[in-house]
Task: structure prediction
Amino acid sequence: MNPVIENLLTRRSIRGFTHRPVAKEDLQTIVNTAIYAPSGMNRQTWQFTVIDHLPTIEHLAKVVGKADNRGEDYDFYKPTAVIIATNHRESRHGCADCSCALQNIFLAAHSLGIGSVWINQLNATCDNPEVRDLLTKVGIPTDHVVYGMAALGYAALPPKEPNKNTQAICFYQPK
Ligand SMILES: Cc1cc2nc3c(=O)[nH]c(=O)nc-3n(C[C@H](O)[C@H](O)[C@H](O)COP(=O)(O)O)c2cc1C
Result:
C-alpha cells in the first residue's frame, strides 16, 4: 500500500505511555510538520508550544484537572511530551487551522513510531487564572486561546480496534 495512505489508516489515539522520552530531534521533526498545514488565508497566526519537561507537564495536568473538576489524578495519560496548539483569540480560522496542524502532528508522530492523542481539556480551561499563569510561563501569548493539545510518547498499550462509521462516506450517483 502507498505508505502515506497506510500511515493515515493505521494511526490510532494512544492513551497510555511508557517512560521512554521522545528525542528532541523527533519533536523538532514532528512540530515542523505543523507549520506546513494549511491555514485560512495563509495567516499562520498560530503557535505550537512544545514541552518535554515532565514536572511542567505534570503541573499543567494538575491545574487543568482542578479547573475542569477532574480530580487530583488527572494526568493527560502521562505523556513524555506535549504540543499545545494555540491561535489568536479573534482569528476566524483559529480552530480549523490548529486542527489541520494537529492532524499533521499526529500523523508525523505515528510515522516515527510515536503515539499520540488529542487532549481537549485546555480549550475550556485556558482562561482559568491558574492555567493561564502556567501557559504564560511556558511562552503562550496572552491573546491566544488553546484549540487542542497533542500528548506524545511511546505506547504502553496497544490502541483500541478502529471503529469507523463507513456510512459517513457518500458517493453522489447522478441519475
Ligand atoms: C476535537 C477532538 C477532541 C478530542 N479530545 C480528546 C480528549 O480530550 N481525550 C481523549 O482521550 N481523546 C480525545 N480525542 C480523540 C478521539 O476520542 C479519537 O480520535 C476517537 O475516539 C477515534 O479514535 P482514533 O483516534 O484512534 O481513530 C479527541 C479528538 C478530537 C478530534
User: Anything to note?
Assistant: The chain has six helices and four strands. The domain at 3-168 is CATH 3.40.109.10 (NADH Oxidase). The mean pLDDT is 97. The pocket of flavin mononucleotide is lined by residues 12-13, 15, 117-121, 159, 162 (CB under 6 Å).
